[in-house]
Amino acid sequence: MNIFCKSSREALRSVSVAALLVAPVAGSAMAQEAQGEVITLDGIVIYGSKDAGTLGDTSASVGVVTAKDIEDGQINSFRDAFRRLGNVLDAAWADSGFIIRGMSSEGLVPGGAPVGSFYVDGVLQTLDGTRRGARGLWDVEQVEVYRGPQSTQSGRAAMAGAIYLKTKDPTFDRQLEFSGTGGTNSLLGTAFMINTPLVEDQVAMRISGAFQRSKSDLNFPDYERFERYDELSEDLYYNIRGKLLLTPAELESTRALLSYSFAHDAPTTRDIGSGPGFNLDDDRGDFNVPYYTEVRSTRVHNAGLEITHDLSDRLRFTSMTGLTNSYTDRPSVNEGTAGETNVFKGYQDDLLFTQEARLNYEGERLTWVAGVYGSYQHYDTLFDRTMPIPGFPAFSVNDRNTMKRDTSNLAAFGELSYEFAPTWNVILGGRADYTWQDAEHHNVRSAVLLPTPQVVDYSTQIEEFNFVPKVGFSKDFGEVHTAGVTYSQGFRTGGYVFDSRTQDVYSYDPEKAHNVELFYKGRFLDDRLTLNANVFYTKYTDQQIEIRPDPSDPFYRITTNAASSQSYGFEIEPTFQVTDQFSTFMSIGYVHTEFLDFDHAVYGDLSGTPFPEAPEWTIALGGRYEFQNGFYVGADAKYVSSFLTRFGAAPQERLDGYAVVNLQAGYRAENWEINAFAENLFDERHYTYYDLDSGNEYATLGAPQTFGINMKARF
Q: Is 147 part of any domain?
């Protein structure tokens, strides 16, 4: 099948039709009358893969949450979309990433290079832009989670996987949509979308915006007197997005899409602790001293320009330009309060520019993609703490740290599939990647026992070259069944560390992932039942680990290549359109993780233990029934088995498994809809983190029970 159309407008129409008509069941055979013809979809369109057009065309393990899934399930955050996917989880707390196949997207080194990529409309996001800034799913077309190493196509930050969020593109129809939400915990939200053609069949514009606010259900009595208490106790998110589509009549084979968005994201934390006179059951979020409690908010500007040009019916050129800037403000809750002298201020300013150019070819027996990639990133950060902190003399008056880091990256990548015999294909690919970093640090510390401030300045430069291959075979069994095997590698770039005791700067090497994957894609029962399955084995070598060589000094930490590990498991994702009115889905994920060699100064020998935040089982299932009179009801649930918490005070704690159920019910008319929803319907109290340290307990609560009503109007 030729994925390229004779004109860009035909390509746009084909993608738009597929996006609008995708069934509640991935790849199901949905038919409707259109000018007397029956239209049958042969699979979900995917946007994040550079060598495949539909879910059935890729060998990767991809979990897809469509626009219909988002709307029907009242899924408001891309992290909430994980509740439909196996071997995918949100990380334990607000200042962390996501978990794919037991591996955190930020690896095992806080602040190091990520191991999981996050893209918004093709634009690679920064670390803070991933944590905060793009969580809303209003006017979003699709969320795609690519599990396992994606380094041959997505680069150095995709050793564990990648997430691709695709927002809705402009169309040549006039559309207007409004949404309003209210619920428990003072939940209040509103959103809008305006789509209009500017020049018939040539220029179209789409503008959307969303606002959502809620109050924390935790208790902060000791913080109520501080200036930033309201910011701490309020979850606030809003964004505005504009997209401009150009399909000029003079250039029938050319399509350009310009997008810009701004987001402000300040989520509340779910961290609780015990203290004098209270315990975890009191849900106290003010368990810590105020200068250790930060109120973080992030502003993200995101711009992208995608240009595609069909050089022929078989060959397409794509240019993807991206620019994103995330600015995170991180004051302590007592900063700005009159009379408060022990305060913390800081920021993280991250600018990332990316440019990719690639060619896609599809012939009768040969398909390939080849491209070049370049990026430049400037990271600037400040940490400023004032006045001595009792019990910690190393932190004192005017403890001020600044760092500036510039990272440049050049890469060439390619992948091909060749049918060397009928129904048999060979897959070959690779990425050659060159990275260099320049960094400068300036630290000033006025310690209590030092007569003069201690000043530490250092700089470093790192150059690094990596090559990762991919090879595999696949076989087609008829027109709707494909199975195969691939071997691929992923990598995470190396870095540097300053040893505060020796005053030396040294570098550590990149870590690698070696992945073997068996895959199957198939459809049954006249395309009403689809089944996607992947079995994998991954070995990680030269893992970057932050260790504490001296257990008596918790602030003396260094990073080194000190571990190796392995993981293996599977994902099985069947979806079934049982009848025209009833659809179901299931996602079963299993992953066994294990450190092979990891001797930690604080935890001891961790060889044989699993990764932190890596449950073995994640099982999601759900269904939806649509009555013929417009009413509908749906439900979904996800089970997560027990797991070790992220690293804290020794020893590591194991958390119990839990299951969360969500419910939706409502009525849909032609131009309006009302939906009542319940998240965590049975109020399942569960922890995503727990630590017992010196008699005190600390934990992070999972999502609370929420009831709400959403109303939409479309014109």
A: yes
Max distance between CA atoms of the chain, in angstroms, equals 88
Q: Select from 148, 145, 191 the least CA-distant residue to 168.
A: 191
**Is residue 1 assigned to a domain?**
no
Tokens of 689: 């983190």
Return the SS3 of 72.
Answer: helix
CB distance 414 to 385 below 8 Å: no
- Indicate the Cα dihedral angle 129, 131, 132, 135, nearest 10°: 100
How do residues 574-611 score in pLDDT, each as one tens digit?
A: 999 999 999 999 999 999 999 998 877 667 788 899 99
**From residue 285, how far is each of 187, 270, 280, 342 by CA, in Å?**
20, 8, 9, 19
- Please tell me which residue, 301 or 19, carries the higher pLDDT value: 301
**Spatial distance between the Cα atoms of 156 and 114, rounded to a whole number of angstroms:** 8
Identify the DSSP state of 434: E
Instruction: State both tokens at 258.
Output: 């310009």
Helix/strand/coil (H, E, C) string of 170-214?
A: CCCCCEEEEEEEEECCCEEEEEEEEEEEEECCCEEEEEEEEEEEE
At residue 484, the 3 state secondary structure works out as strand
Cα–Cα distance for residue pair 187/212, rounded to 1 Å? 7
For residue 161, is it left (φ>0), alpha (ψ between -120 and 50) or beta? left
SS (H, E, C) 222-254: HHCCCCCHHHHHEEEEEEEEEEEEECCCCCCCE
Q: Helices (H), strands (E): how many in the chain? A: 5, 40
Within-domain flag for 550: yes
User: What whole-number distance in Å separates Cα of residue 239 and Cα of residue 136?
Assistant: 8
Tens-place pLDDT, residues 419-455: 999 999 999 999 999 999 999 998 887 655 455 667 8
d(CA 123, CA 258): 12
Q: Indicate the burial class of 625 (C-beta count within 10 angstroms; 0-12, 13-18, 19 or more).
A: middle
Look at residue 22 and give its three-state secondary structure: coil
CATH number of the domain enclosing 340: 2.40.170.20
Q: Per the structure, how many domains does the chain have?
A: 1
Number of CB atoms found within 10 A of residue 461's CB:
11
Dihedral of the alpha carbons of 303, 202, 15, 206, in degrees to the nearest 10: 50
Q: Is residue 2 part of a domain?
A: no
CB 353 within 8 A of CB 336: no
- The rounded distance, in Å, linking the Cα atoms of 118 and 164 is 6
Evaluate whether 576 touches 528 at the Cβ level (below 8 Å).
yes
Alpha-carbon span 115 to 564, nearest angstrom: 15
Token pair, residue 11, equals 């390509």
Domain residues for the domain of 172 are: 8-714
